[in-house]
Amino acid sequence: MAELKTKLNNASVTDFLNGIKDEQNRVDSFEILRLMQQVTKLEPKMWGSNIIGFGNAHYKYESGREIDWFLVGFSPRKQNLTVYVMGSLEPHADLFKKLGRHKTGVGCLYISKLQDIDTKVLKELIKRSVKAAKSLQTA
After folding, report:
1. Structural domain count of the chain
2. Distance from CA of residue 38 to its chain's centroid?
């Protein structure tokens, strides 16, 4: 089984975010950082070169695969702000209906810019994601 390339490291979250060239993306990223810190009460850490995660948990899948990952996190990509939602997206369908303009993928929420969504709904989604992540962790 291949080893996960995206790992917790000591790189500076602030330096990473300050290095974002697009001003709106940078401002939005700092706002998501603030929301996630507020919900989790945890310090952000870099995972790999471009993901910011909160917390550290060990997950074991039904397949037997095990990984160390964060409880909730995000990545400011060029196309979208990517929010990593732990567990299935299905239980959050009610929130997605109220969120505003977004896209979803497998375990990910894609947002073009924060002004397109309701940040109170995003905050609730972050809370639910953290709760789901804690229920999934094995250690």
Report:
1. 1
2. 14
> Which residues have CB under 8 Å from 2's CB, separation 6+?
none
The model's pLDDT over 84-119, given as tens digits with 9 standing for 90+, comes to: 987 778 888 999 999 999 999 888 999 999 999 999
Look at residue 2 and tell me if it is in a domain.
no
Amino acid (1-letter code) at residue 17? L
The answer to whether 38 touches 92, Cβ cutoff 8 Å, is: no
Q: What's the 3-state SS for 122-137?
A: HHHHHHHHHHHHHHHE
What span, in angstroms and rounded, lies between the C-alpha atoms of 93 and 106? 14
| Of the candidates 134, 136, 132, 82, the residue with the CA atom closest to the CA atom of residue 111 | 82
Q: Which domain holds residue 131?
A: 8-136
Q: How many CB atoms are located within 10 Å of the residue 3 CB? A: 6
- Assigned token pair, 117: 């969504």
Residue 1 falls inside a structural domain: no
The pLDDT tens digits for 23-35 are 999 999 999 999 9
DSSP symbols for 82-123: EEE--S-SGGGHHHHHHHBS-EEETTEEEES-GGGB-HHHHH
